[in-house]
Amino acid sequence: MNEKGKKKNELTLTVKVRLEQAKGKELPEVVVYAFDQTGQFLTAAKLPKGEQAEVRLDLPIGLRGTTVRAILGPPLAAEDEDVPSWMAILMRRGKEQKEVPSSAVLVQRGAYEKRARMHTEHEVLSVAVFPHDWTKWLRCLCTVQGRVVKRMALPDGTTKDLGVCHACVKIYEVDKFPKLIARLPERDLFRLRDDLWRRFRQWPPEELPFEYKPRVWPSPPPPPPERTQMSGISSLEAVSAVAINPQPEPPIEALGKGTVITPINSQIQTELEPILLAVSATELRSALVAKADILVRFACLWEWLYSYFHTDLIKCACTDEQGRFQTTVSYPCGGDKPDLYFKVMQCIDGALHTLYDPGVACHTYWNYECGSEVTLEVTDPAARVCVPTDPVEVPAGVSLWVMPYAVGGISLDRIKPNWQKNLTWHVADPDPTKRGLTDYGSIVDAPFGGWLGFRHGYASSIPTPALYYYRWRYKKEGEAEWHDFSEPVVRHYVKEMPGKLPTFPVCTLGPKGVDGKNLYRFKPHDPSECGDFIPGGTNYWPTDDWFGDIYTGFLNSPGLPGGVDTSAGKYKIKLEVYDQAGNRVTSGPGTFQFIVPTGVADDGVTIETRLADAAEIESDGFVFYLHIDNRKCTAIIDAPTIGGVSAGDVCGFLRYTPGDSTPVHIAFHAVHTANFATFSFSVTRGATPVSNVGGEVAAGSVADKTTAPSDHSYTGDGNGNFQHDFPTGRLLGPCAEAAFAEVLNVDAKATNGWRRLDEYDADAVRAFALAPETGDET
């Protein structure tokens, strides 16, 4: 096409830019963005670096006679440059084209705008930019890093942070608070002043509110009874965070009654006096802007202000297997550090799911300190977490090993008879009645119950043809026959196909029938070795067990033969190893060795171990005890009596004779068939506690907690049946007659290895009234 024809079929705009007073100074990178008069993006071109430069923009011919907006500003980083392509596509909801720049975002970042009327096919626009504007385009880099976690409560009462892996962290820049104030209409300027004044009156002047520290402690549930297609949500929602953000406390109304709000510092009150004394809107706006750095600490307190906050998505970053993310963002070198807000999203079942979005006003990192680590705690039960493989310190000389490790979250060293760090292993159990029980939290001698997930580890070189299968077995103490575990066990792998979202098929480890035995495969080194492998694309194992694939065997203990009553008792659990032909392998230095956990090293992560004792090996398998009891508790409160006469069940009145010394007999029954329970029992007169006792259901006596222990105690028979005789005056106190409430809670001790099985609890409530004889009863 000749030059003449070219001019007739397109428009061009040449933008000539001169940066004033720029000689010898550091110059910014500048991009010229073109928008039509309605704000639709047309094109962009980078300006050559220098004090004076020009760039040519090619525009659609249809814009002749219209106005074109030329906006000069810094280059915009790709929001999703740190996320995989499939995540970027998903975030754009399937649109493969990149998002176009926004004129509002450019202006937000200090861009400079000039307009040109396209009278002819080729127009020239000359722009002079002064230091006040172009120095805003000098950008400094800021490293942003942090971790997305889901907090798991461990059976011993401690917690562990698990990384929310393969999630997208969307990083937003929040408008500086002065900009928010500039947008407020006059009525809200005065509303802000008045609300601030009310806060001064509520809070004695001492200091600013503390940082906002939300506390949520989710407890991981047991493994699910449905195991055919196990996902991360169902299997370890298992193994299921507290974010400490630099924010003020939320409003009193949100915190509830009884919350102590720390007052405002008197010096701060003095600094804010110009705001409180301002009369005109202009004066008030100026005073608010001048003290914006103080006011932003209170922004969380007023919900009506939330809608005025403006955010700009500036970057996305993906979390790794530990839930960590790191990226860089830019900010004006001459300004404050960026104010950052974070959202967390994760791809779950092919859709983007928001896990963390707590609100800008209360959870913005104002003036973020570059390089500091933020912790974003996710409490959404759908969040998929990575379960890191903890390092193992094996005994000297051991290379090939298999380690029976835990039932749920309770490791074998905490199941009696237990091995304690730096103590001697007791082959002869000093108390056989406690075999298979565990202590967790404040609970002692607890049995196991519910759906139980068993875990074992092994050397990274396994599997080999010589060490190919394993088998879990169980039998009740005194029983002759062993029974195989038979519930399915799977592992998820990642399948990536070009242009498609990744999928997560399962590899079934077993059970596989081999010579009449239910055997399970050790996880193969390559997913393609799975029998149910789906060929095509790229396939690999996740770096960590981010679907919660931590279990190697399952036992449905409520479904054991005979029902929960007959099946309760001690069980032997056995782990065996087999070769590829299905032959059982004898442990030893020439094959492999069983090792057993003894505790955790001082780093809090590394599992310390010992060689299995000869007494723990039976018929080539490692054996340990597990006491299983799924029986429920019973709670019964007897009607109180005086001289053998009980309170009526219909009206609940118990009559006494003033001056008579006959006591009121109180009795209750906190029962578990094997005494695997604790209880609490209280008597309340109106709203005044009269008696409060608790402890083991097998206790011979329990002292009252509301007064000195010597005051009185309930006697027990060792099987949960308690009673006490109260003097009438002890119950009535200052009253001549009174109404009472008796509340009994019986809590089962049984655990599935993660939590106490509160579904086995029992409760009872009874009310009665104590009144003097009237003498006119018929």
Q: Oligomerization state of this entry?
A: single chain
Count of beta strands: 47
Output mean pLDDT: 83
Q: What structural class results from the helix and strand content?
A: mainly beta
So what's the overall shape? flat
Helical content (DSSP H or I, runs of 4+): 10-25%
Largest sheet: 7 strands, mixed
Total helical elements: 15
Q: Rg, please? A: 36 Å
Assess the beta-strand content as a share of residues: 35-45%
SSE blueprint:
Elements: H1 3-9, E1 11-19, E2 30-36, E3 41-47, E4 52-59, E5 67-73, H2 85-91, H3 103-108, E6 112-117, E7 122-129, H4 131-134, E8 139-153, E9 159-163, E10 167-174, H5 177-183, H6 186-202, H7 232-236, H8 252-255, H9 266-271, H10 273-277, H11 281-290, H12 292-295, E11 311-318, E12 324-332, E13 340-348, E14 351-356, H13 360-363, E15 373-377, E16 392-393, E17 401-407, E18 410-411, E19 438-440, E20 443-446, E21 451-458, E22 469-476, E23 483-484, E24 489-492, E25 494-496, E26 506-510, E27 512-514, E28 517-521, E29 538-540, E30 553-556, H14 563-567, E31 569-578, E32 593-600, E33 607-611, E34 617-618, E35 621-628, E36 634-637, E37 641-642, E38 645-646, E39 653-656, E40 664-671, E41 677-685, E42 688-696, E43 701-703, E44 713-716, E45 721-726, H15 728-732, E46 738-748, E47 762-772
Describe the structure.
The protein has 778 residues and is mostly beta strands. Helix content is 12%, strand content 37%. The protein has 15 helices and 47 strands. The longest helix is centred in the N-terminal third of the chain and has 17 residues, at 186-202. It is flat.
